[in-house]
Amino acid sequence: MASLREQIRAAQDIKAQDDVEIPEWAPGEFFRVKGLPSSDWEEYQSRLSKMRIDTTGKSGAEMQLRSNKALIVAKALYEQETDELVFPDAREGVAVLGQKNAGIINGLFNLVRVLSDDDKSFEQKVKAAEGNSDGDQP
Length: 138
Fold this sequence. Notes:
The protein contains 6 helices and 4 strands.
């Protein structure tokens, strides 16, 4: 039997959504959107925290927020047929996506949040996981 460490390493727990169509960008093409690992979400949250601390009422904070969302989307957007990142260079992705429709970026960002389970509280995650255990817990 594999150790817990080995089981955790082998676990495929990153969710993906296929058949995401963005007709404004590529009519008839389908994307795969993947959830992100914890390290990417922690980096995003850290940037948000720094923005809140550094905010002095300037419009730069809103632009930073948009580029942070664009970064998350760039890290999560894949070509469905090849499973390759659309933007392997995240900086290019931010530059391109930062100029696109905010509604599309927000929609994709929210999908990434759902796929990453970042849209739930810890208590909700625990409750959802209770029925998924093979243990003898009540």
